[in-house]
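Review form for a predicted model. The reviewer records the input and the model, then writes brief findings.
Reviewer: anonymous (R2)
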Amino acid sequence: MIRESFKEVVPLPEGVQAEVTGTKVTLKSGSNENTRVFKVKGIEIRKTDMGLEIEATPAKRKMNAKLKTVVSHLHNMAKGLDQEFEYKLAIVYSHFPMSVNVKGNVVEINNFAGEKKVRQAKILPGVQVEVKGKDVSVKGHSKEAVGQTAANLETSTKVRGRDRRIFQDGIFIVSKGK
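Model under review:
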């Protein structure tokens, strides 16, 4: 017997409402909300009594991998409604003291390696960034948004054109967690 498609059901935690319109999935719990658009060909998402049913057609190895990826994203979305994801970053400098400030939806980095130009890192919607001394905390309910904001901070202080073993200044991810 040949399979035509792969199916998997993602059970929703207690108190989580799901809304599926085409490829857009919105999960709500209280005041928290996570929305994501899944632009994957061959994947269909439906809301059922048991949770969200994801179907991948045709039943090939690559489609199974795509199905498992979508399922993981949905699990992370549901998990983020109950608890916040948090990334901790460290500000490291050797000679020029760097100052980091949050202004609106941007983090400004002043005096990086003695530069006069102010470097900026974008903060994605739904993410809170807090700077305390040499520690930076990035929190939010969307794992992807928190991770991308932390990556924006890290890449905005990337040293280019110099030896990384000597010029070790920057903002670096120290830990990831819930």
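Findings: The chain has two domains: 6-82, 85-177.
Further findings: Residues 61-82 form the longest helix (22 residues).
Recommendation: see findings above.
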